[in-house]
Amino acid sequence: MSFALPPLQWLRAYEAAARLSSFSAAAAELNLTPAAISHQVRALEQRLGFQLFERLARGLQLTDIGRAYLPSVRKAFDELAVTTVGLFGRDHDTHITVRTPVLFANNWLAPLLPKFYAAFPHIKLRILTAIWADTSTNVDVDIRFGDGQWSEFEVHPLLREPSILVVRDDTKLPKGSDREKVLALLDHGVVHIMGCEDRWTKLLRKHDISDRKVRVSTMTDNSLFAIRLTLAGLGPCVVQRSYAEPFLKEGLAAPLTEGIEIDEAHYILTARSAERTTPEAIIFREWLVAECRARRNEASERTA
């Protein structure tokens, strides 16, 4: 590129002033005087040939061109910070807090963490396991299961997979079709996971069963306990495939030839605002997205 970029300190002054809507606040953050911030922003505007801010009596307001320029500048600083911390670390260990569903932590995250620590030994994790996200708890990274519609966060998909019906491996079932097996199971109670009401409906619809109601024997709020209830003989449940797989050699069976596609998936969430997202949180997010993608590809190749 032949275009000469403006000096880094001018861009930093602009980004901070835009984020904080104040030359004084930007000056305090960057350890400069308000006059210095104002001078650097003015120099940037003269270099670009456009006014980036409207100077108001009670603060600053971005112009249209100033607002359009900001995302690219902010992204550049974020990427520079992430790359620097990722390659060189800090002069001390840093911690980030990650909240994750229990079974995702057990089946996906725990086996991968040695690889993460080998790549980023300066980043330490505090891992909170939760069934449902508690928005009153501040975390750096939030792994959630749902529809992905959390507009206040930056959201990236991690894992989407079918759900399967599982039973205790000594359950007596007819030798016929999947439909006949489902009908036989409906004669007894089933284990139901709260918040996943549509899974049994989709299973029945898939096998053209419209005139039978699902009788729930026990309800629970998480997949792990649902699997344990099924192993205890309280009826079948419908859970995500990777959640069930570790138990398929420990008393659990998947009697149907196919699973059902569900609308929900696992997502990783970080704050949208740059001042609330640390480079370490972004490093962890990008690493986990890549690792989940790689594991999905490996699984697809094995089944192909």
UniProtKB/TrEMBL annotation:
Domain of life of the native organism: Bacteria
Q: Which Gene3D superfamilies match?
A: Periplasmic binding protein-like II, Winged helix-like DNA-binding domain superfamily/Winged helix DNA-binding domain
| Protein name (Swiss-Prot/TrEMBL) | LysR family transcriptional regulator
Give the UniProt family note: Belongs to the LysR transcriptional regulatory family.
| Example GO molecular function | sequence-specific DNA binding
Cited Pfam families: HTH_1 (PF00126), LysR_substrate (PF03466)
Give one GO biological process term. Answer: DNA-templated transcription
Keywords in alphabetical order: DNA-binding, Transcription, Transcription regulation
Organism of origin: Pseudaminobacter soli (ex Li et al. 2025)
Signal peptide stretch: none
Does the entry feature the keyword DNA damage, yes or no? no
Domain named HTH lysR-type is located at 6-63
